[in-house]
C-alpha cells in the first residue's frame, strides 16, 4: 500500500457519515483511508446573522460525528482557522510526514453565496497544488443545473418548479440517488444499535502529532459557547436524527390535518437536522419510501412531500438569484418606505405587541429556538404589514434565534410573507392576527402555553381586542388602520 494514497474529507454542513456522497466516494476510492477535517471559519462565525443556539447545536453535532468516526476507524480533526489557512498549513505539515500529502480532498457542495466563493478559491488552490478534489451533490436532491425551463433559466414560481421536480424525481437516475440513501439508513440503524464496524482504516494520529490543545479545541468551543446559551439545546447528531425519523413515522399520515395547528407536535421537527446535514431530503424520502404523488393527492405523505420540495425551491432561488440575500427578489419592492420604528421592533422581539398569537410565537422562539411554521407566517406578516418594518430586520432576528436558521428557506419565508419574493403572498392578502389565532388556535392552547399572563383569560377574549381590553397589554397598533397603511406602502 502506498502511504500517499489517502484522502481528507472536509466536513462543512454535511455532518454525518450515513449516505454522505463525497465521503462515500473517497471511502471507496481509497479503501477506507479517509480522515475528516473541520475548520472553524471566523469569517462565518463573525457574521451578523450568527446564532449562539444554532452554533451550540452544530457543535454538539460535530462532537457526535467525531465520536462516530472514531468508532468506525477514522477521525475528525478541528482547526481554529478558516480554510484558506487550514489547507496550506495542513498540506505543509503533512508533506513532511511519513504519509505525505493526501491525494484527494473531498466535500459536498453548498449553495450559499459565501460558500460558493469559498469553494471556488479552494478548487483553484488545490489545482495549483496538484491535489485532486472530489465534490458532490448532497443538500438538495435535484441541483439547480438539473432543473431548468425549456428556454433556459430557473423557475420563479413554485407550481411549475414542483411539476418538473416531480417529473425528474421519477427518473431512474434520481431514484438511484434515493436507493443509495437506503444503504445509509441501514448503516445508521446499525450504528444506533451499537453494531458499527471499523469500516475506515486511517486516523490522524497515523499522519501527524496532534497536540493536546488541538485535541481539546472542539470541547473548548462547546464550553465557551455554552456560557451564552439560554435555552435547552435539543439532542444533536446522527442517532438523534434517526430517532426523529422514527418518531415522526406514525404521525406522517396525519400531517395534512395537524401541520397547521401550533399547539400540537404535528410536524416532523427535521429542520434542525437538515440545516447541518445530519439529515437530507433524500434520506427522508428514502426512509419513508415516499413516491411521486398526484397533484390532487391530499394525503399526509403527499402534503409533506410537497413541503420538502418547497425547501428545494428556495435553495434553487438562492443559487440562481444570490442577490436575494440582502434585497427584495421583486425589483419594484426594493425601495419600500418602511417605517422601521425601533420601539415596535423591540416589542415584537420580546413578544409584547398585545396580539396574543404574535406574542406567543415570539416567546416560543426565544424560549425554545424554534417556531411553528404557521406562526412564523403570522409574525412575519405582522412585522411587515402591521408594524411596517423591513422584512430584513425580521429575517436577521430569526437567524439569530432559530436553531434551524438557514439562509435559503428563511429568506424565502420572509420574502414570501413580505410579498417581495418570488411567488409570494400577494401584497393585498394581509393576515389578520385575530382571525388567524381563532382559526389555528381556537382553544387558545398555544397562546396560553407561551403567554402565561393569558392562562386564565377566557378563550373568546383571545380573538377580540375589545373583549381583551384590560386583561392583557394593549395592542401597540390597530390592525385595521395598519392594513390600510400597508396597502398604500405597496402601491408602487
Ligand atoms: C418567515 C419564515 C422563516 C422561515 N425560516 C426558516 C429557516 O430559517 N429554516 C428552515 O429550515 N425553514 C424555515 N422556514 C420554513 C418552515 O417554517 C420550517 O422549515 C418548518 O417550520 C420547520 O419545522 P419542521 O421541520 O417540523 O417542518 P415540517 O412541516 O415537518 O416540514 C418538513 C421539512 O420541509 C421543509 N419545509 C416545510 N415548510 C417549508 C417552507 N414553508 N419553506 C421551506 N421549506 C419548508 C423544511 O425543510 C422542513 O424541515 C421559515 C418559514 C417562514 C414563514
Concise summary:
This protein has a five-stranded parallel sheet, sandwiched between helices. The longest helix has 21 residues.
Question: How are the SSEs placed, and which strands pair?
Answer:
Blueprint: E1 7-10, H1 21-29, E2 34-39, H2 42-45, H3 52-71, E3 76-79, H4 83-95, E4 104-108, H5 113-129, E5 132-136, H6 158-169, H7 172-192, H8 204-207, H9 212-226, H10 238-248, H11 255-258, H12 271-276, H13 281-288, H14 300-320, H15 342-350, H16 356-368, H17 373-386, H18 391-401, H19 407-417, H20 433-440, H21 445-450, H22 465-468, H23 479-489
Parallel strand pairs: 1-2, 1-4, 2-3, 4-5
Helix pairs in contact: 3-9, 6-14, 7-13, 14-19, 16-17, 18-19
The chain binds flavin-adenine dinucleotide.
Flavin-adenine dinucleotide is lined by residues 259, 267-271, 274, 307-308, 310-311, 314, 373, 376-377, 380, 398, 402, 404-406, 409-410, 412-414, 417.
In words, what does this structure look like?
This protein is mainly α. The protein folds into three domains: 1-138, HUPs (Rossmann fold), CATH 3.40.50.620; 139-196 and 237-320, Serine Threonine Protein Phosphatase 5, Tetratricopeptide repeat (Alpha Horseshoe), CATH 1.25.40.80; 331-489, DNA Cyclobutane Dipyrimidine Photolyase, subunit A, domain 3. The protein contains 23 helices and five strands. It has helices at residues 21-29, 42-45, 52-71, 83-95, 113-129, 158-169, 172-192, 204-207, 212-226, 238-248, 255-258, 271-276, 281-288, 300-320, 342-350, 356-368, 373-386, 391-401, 407-417, 433-440, 445-450, 465-468, 479-489, and strands spanning 7-10, 34-39, 76-79, 104-108, 132-136. Strand 4 (104-108), helix 5 and strand 5 (132-136) form a beta-alpha-beta unit. Helix 3 packs antiparallel against helix 9 (212-226), helix 7 packs across helix 13 (281-288) and helix 14 (300-320) packs across helix 19. The longest helix is centred in the middle third of the chain and has 21 residues, at 172-192. The model has no long low-confidence stretch (mean pLDDT 96). Bound molecules: flavin-adenine dinucleotide (FAD).
